[in-house]
């Protein structure tokens, strides 16, 4: 299912899978898309002092991120989310949920100079959806 890099004792995926709020929210396509984007091209660190001192982080490949979202939703597979667009952008909804779980984004690859409008999240996902998103954007 792709690669994740984990050099901390805590496991972000397990913590997401055990959180009832995240499991409820991820059923919504917009939230799931935000979660996928936030797991790609980012590094997350726990708020544990030892992890901070060791610079221990967690990250995932795009394929793994898609699989994580599909698994949390209990449907589909990584291709439903892979290349959905906006990879590396951490939406405030995700930032707040991760903060509540004790995780902070220490590296992200957010698009520069472009605000992502709320109505774009979840409207097109996966590789096919990414192509339709770009067509939609050109026609705005």
Textual characterization of the structure:
There is one protein chain. This protein has 140 residues and is mainly α. It has one domain. It is 46% helix and 11% strand. It has seven helices and four strands; from the N terminus they run βαααβαβααβα. The strands form two sheets. A two-stranded antiparallel ribbon has the order 1-3. A two-stranded antiparallel ribbon has the order 2-4. Helix 3 packs antiparallel against helix 5. The longest helix is centred in the last third of the chain and has 13 residues. It is globular, with a radius of gyration of 15 Å. The termini are far apart. The C terminus is likely disordered.
In short:
The chain is mainly alpha-helical.
Features:
two-stranded antiparallel ribbon, 7 helices, 140 residues, globular, mainly alpha, 4 strands, 46% helix
Find the structural class using helix and strand composition.
mainly alpha
Shape: globular
Mean pLDDT: 87
Number of strands: 4
Number of domains: 1
Question: How are the elements arranged and paired?
Answer:
Layout: E1 4-6, H1 12-17, H2 20-25, H3 29-39, E2 43-46, H4 49-54, E3 58-60, H5 62-73, H6 92-101, E4 103-107, H7 126-138
Antiparallel strand pairs: 1-3, 2-4
Helix pairs in contact: 3-5
